[in-house]
């Protein structure tokens, strides 16, 4: 039996605080504006991917969460694999004795440790893990920044999952995408107090896909170009400064404003795109009232292309923030002993009425690290999923 | 007993298709952008106001829908009354024999023919009727355009209720507001096929008031200024052209886009302002799908500072438009024999599931006339509300 070569890695989910929305080139996944995100802990949310290759494999196959994907029809996947094979073939050319892994077919197995039903964008972690796993399998010399340019072509925001902590995706200027890449803004340990809670909304329905949605916005929103060209560049600078200074007030204000503006340009699209529902809006009201009562930002909310909320908060405010949401959503799964249900003094109690079932699950997590190698393999000795 | 002088008028509700949102001067109610609206038929929606004055009246009193308002604390009301008294005193100076009505106190009684619970902006019709009634009582020579500058100071959009049909509020340039006034773009008879339906949302809660909401937008939305300065001026021109040409396709597209953009800048406000709820958004989806199936715009939706929908449509599409919404909201009050419940062929039936109780009432109406004198008086021989 020919040998099976393999490498396994994990990669984190990232949640943007300055949003990516709109491509200037759909083929290369080049964005209309830079963006910035926070990697979440892989304890709670991660993709585990094993990439393997062998002369005995007949074709490239990807198994994603237990089902075989059609690689031939997934052009984004093919682009990533071909880019990595090309880099491997250079390694082989420069090291004549090395195995010609670039000529072998790949078997890739990928699994998330969170349910797809959670509605969290899993493609970012998925493509980051896939690229990082194959790069490790091929023992490529490329840096994470360089690999991020490949992951970007799989799924735009995947480039940001090549790093832990706080990561920007610099949009770049070149037409070939050679400068559209991710770079780390700060590590997780730079700001260890930063926590995150994800509130999963019950019965969330699948909305407009982000790929088609963002291009509809580019084509029809008259506010969008102004945002991309005039507002986001300023916010990127301000957000980097806020993170460097561990300034939660600025971080929260920018995070909230940018989430709302992203959903505003979705609404300015023809036909309009809605991701927030009444529960999402209710969570916003609760967070705004909490910040008002606290006299400062203690909870920064952000929403991606779906109704689920992500809250960033500092560990010193854990009881204040989680206590309120636990009071409102006692029946949700996932609460910990970190916080008991509690409404802060002075809070508008009229807002607490009629709460209850909008949130089915919470995920309490924090800022996390970037992709890691692991010994945990998802393939068996035959090169098939375990 | 001293004589009681009186005049009674009715004025229409108007619903903007290019939205007013934001003041450049709050004292004079000068807007940041021009706007354009449609007056609705007074058969269905109107304010009836009787203005009277007499030497026997001790003070200015306003009875609004049965309850006495505190005139002294209503600065907007005082401004309107003082402006009109000043104009009357000029009439008296020029006509030495005339009664000195300007020295007498006013008793004003005002009533809407629609429930306040309907959540329709009644201040526009209310201030228009009040100004027009007092102007008639005083036999002022001023035109509707001139009177609209006074009504504007009561409630911005009230200036547009001085006319029937299609009316623009030209924002003007002068600091004193002397050129910020309404003017008729087209009469009701210019486009007799235009119909309107109002869908009243069940259990609509009072949201942020439009006065405080719009100034929060001016202060905090980074998209707002761009809309006011660069987008609305173009849309005003296009909308006037669409109305002149009776071009429903352009009319509908502009109406829809401007409603969505108005709600987008509300969402871009800090803290964000929400007027649309899940039912509002559902109505949008139904209208968008209806237009898609029809292959053209047949229903133009617009939402003011609340969740209720207003649909404009041409009479030839009555069955198509009302039939769909009647199918979805069979239990709502107010449907007529004009349309039976019906889902058009090719309509995405998945959208029809789980409909039912979001809309409690519909008001089927059409474009209407401007303010009118009436013999129907709301005061009795003692100068008190009947």
UniProtKB/TrEMBL annotation, chains A, B:
<keyword id="KW-0456">Lyase</keyword>
<dbReference type="InterPro" id="IPR036554">
    <property type="entry name" value="GHMP_kinase_C_sf"/>
</dbReference>
<keyword id="KW-0756">Sterol biosynthesis</keyword>
<dbReference type="GO" id="GO:0006696">
    <property type="term" value="P:ergosterol biosynthetic process"/>
</dbReference>
<keyword id="KW-0067">ATP-binding</keyword>
<dbReference type="GO" id="GO:0005524">
    <property type="term" value="F:ATP binding"/>
</dbReference>
<dbReference type="InterPro" id="IPR029765">
    <property type="entry name" value="Mev_diP_decarb"/>
</dbReference>
<dbReference type="InterPro" id="IPR014721">
    <property type="entry name" value="Ribsml_uS5_D2-typ_fold_subgr"/>
</dbReference>
<feature type="domain" description="Mvd1 C-terminal">
    <location>
        <begin position="197"/>
        <end position="372"/>
    </location>
</feature>
<dbReference type="GO" id="GO:0019287">
    <property type="term" value="P:isopentenyl diphosphate biosynthetic process, mevalonate pathway"/>
</dbReference>
<comment type="pathway">
    <text>Isoprenoid biosynthesis; isopentenyl diphosphate biosynthesis via mevalonate pathway; isopentenyl diphosphate from (R)-mevalonate: step 3/3.</text>
</comment>
<feature type="domain" description="Diphosphomevalonate decarboxylase-like N-terminal">
    <location>
        <begin position="11"/>
        <end position="181"/>
    </location>
</feature>
<dbReference type="Pfam" id="PF18376">
    <property type="entry name" value="MDD_C"/>
</dbReference>
<dbReference type="Pfam" id="PF22700">
    <property type="entry name" value="MVD-like_N"/>
</dbReference>
<keyword id="KW-1207">Sterol metabolism</keyword>
<dbReference type="GO" id="GO:0004163">
    <property type="term" value="F:diphosphomevalonate decarboxylase activity"/>
</dbReference>
<keyword id="KW-0443">Lipid metabolism</keyword>
<protein>
    <recommendedName>
        <fullName>Diphosphomevalonate decarboxylase</fullName>
        <ecNumber>4.1.1.33</ecNumber>
    </recommendedName>
</protein>
<keyword id="KW-0753">Steroid metabolism</keyword>
<dbReference type="GO" id="GO:0005829">
    <property type="term" value="C:cytosol"/>
</dbReference>
<keyword id="KW-0444">Lipid biosynthesis</keyword>
<keyword id="KW-0752">Steroid biosynthesis</keyword>
<keyword id="KW-0547">Nucleotide-binding</keyword>
<dbReference type="InterPro" id="IPR041431">
    <property type="entry name" value="Mvd1_C"/>
</dbReference>
<dbReference type="InterPro" id="IPR020568">
    <property type="entry name" value="Ribosomal_Su5_D2-typ_SF"/>
</dbReference>
<comment type="similarity">
    <text>Belongs to the diphosphomevalonate decarboxylase family.</text>
</comment>
<dbReference type="InterPro" id="IPR005935">
    <property type="entry name" value="Mev_decarb"/>
</dbReference>
<dbReference type="InterPro" id="IPR053859">
    <property type="entry name" value="MVD-like_N"/>
</dbReference>
């Amino acid at each position: 039996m020919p040998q099976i070569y393999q490498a396994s890695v994990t990669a984190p989910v990232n949640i943007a605080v300055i949003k990516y929305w709109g491509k200037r080139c759909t083929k290369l996944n080049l964005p209309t504006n830079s963006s910035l995100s926070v990697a979440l802990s892989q304890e709670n949310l991660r993709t585990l991917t094993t990439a393997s290759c062998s002369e005995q494999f007949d074709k490239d196959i990807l198994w994603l969460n237990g089902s075989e994907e059609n690689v031939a029809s997934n052009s984004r996947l093919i682009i990533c694999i071909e880019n990595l094979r090309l880099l491997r073939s250079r390694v082989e050319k420069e090291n004549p004795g090395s195995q010609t892994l670039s000529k072998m077919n790949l078997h890739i197995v990928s699994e998330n440790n969170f349910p797809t039903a959670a509605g969290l964008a899993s493609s970012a972690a998925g493509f980051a893990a896939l690229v990082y796993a194959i790069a490790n399998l091929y023992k490529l010399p490329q840096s994470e920044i360089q690999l991020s340019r490949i992951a970007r072509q799989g799924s735009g925001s995947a480039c940001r999952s090549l790093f832990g902590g706080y990561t920007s995706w610099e949009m770049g200027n070149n037409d070939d995408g050679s400068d559209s890449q991710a770079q780390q803004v700060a590590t997780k340990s730079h700001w260890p107090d930063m926590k995150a809670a994800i509130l999963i909304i019950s019965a969330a329905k699948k909305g407009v896909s982000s790929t088609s949605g963002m291009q509809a916005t580019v084509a029809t929103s008259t506010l969008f170009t102004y945002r991309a060209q005039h507002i986001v560049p300023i916010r990127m600078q301000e957000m980097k400064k806020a993170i460097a200074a561990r300034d939660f007030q600025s971080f929260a204000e920018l995070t909230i404003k940018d989430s709302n503006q992203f959903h505003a340009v979705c609404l300015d699209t023809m036909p309009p795109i809605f991701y927030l529902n009444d529960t999402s809006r209710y969570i916003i009201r609760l967070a705004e009232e909490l910040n008002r009562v606290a006299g400062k930002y203690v909870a920064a909310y952000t929403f991606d292309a779906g109704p689920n909320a992500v809250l960033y908060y500092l560990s010193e405010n854990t009881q204040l923030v989680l206590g309120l949401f636990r009071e409102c959503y006692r029946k949700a799964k996932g609460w910990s002993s970190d916080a008991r249900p509690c409404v802060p003094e002075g809070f508008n109690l009229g807002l607490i009425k009629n709460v209850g079932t909008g949130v089915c699950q919470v995920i309490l997590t924090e800022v996390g690290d970037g992709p890691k190698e692991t010994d945990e393999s998802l393939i068996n000795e035959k090169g098939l999923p375990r």
